[in-house]
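Deliverable D5.2: sample structural annotation.
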Amino acid sequence: MKNTAQLALAVQLPDDETFDSFFGETNSVVVEQLQQFIFSLQEQENLPIGFYLFGQTGSGKSHLLHACCAYAEQQGFSSLCLSFSELTQLSVDVLEGLEHIDLVCLDGIQYIADDAQWQQAVFDLYNRVIEQNKRLIITADLPAKDLGIALPDLVSRLNWGYIEQIKPLTDEEKLATIQYRAKQRGVVLSDEVAKYLLNHFSRQMQDLISSLDVLDKASIREQRKITIPFIKEVLSN
């Protein structure tokens, strides 16, 4: 097994991306299934080892993968979360030995839709994970059959385990998420301010969180509260 600590990848998990910070009822069933899937590592019987999670950009797939790893660590399991957007810049050898980790999360398999070598490497990893009775969660923006992956065996593997679709958050859930993430930074974001941010800038959750980061840093730097005039001043630049 290769020492996964030697991988030149950004694998540190965001502290604020947990199941607790993934708000709303829209995807509550998916969250429960992911938790049960991870908890099944305690079972000795043969259970599906793969979980395929798909949904449109900005629906929270990466957040849920980070949450899965945090949850696995809480249960005493080892975990690793990697993104194909970074992996494809490296050799497929980085996947060697990952089958010894209890939970492996791979984000954005659509990035290897045109790469036969990576498709074979992921298929091989999948089979090694099965042999070790570990768990593998893979995300994408589309159902497996629509990704354009040329390796039929890999498509079959992706469809072999659990399959769930993440639905976009409602505006109310986005507001709750923004205010929760602000509170974690020690910032109180009023309903009026949060709604202004949602209604006047990108509604993608990842963009909203990025905007909040910019506002938080500017607020600390200038010693000012985050108000609507402050948002106009900072984000318009």
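Annotation notes: The two ends are 49 Å apart (CA to CA). The longest helix spans residues 205-222.
The annotation will be released with the project's public dataset once the embargo ends.
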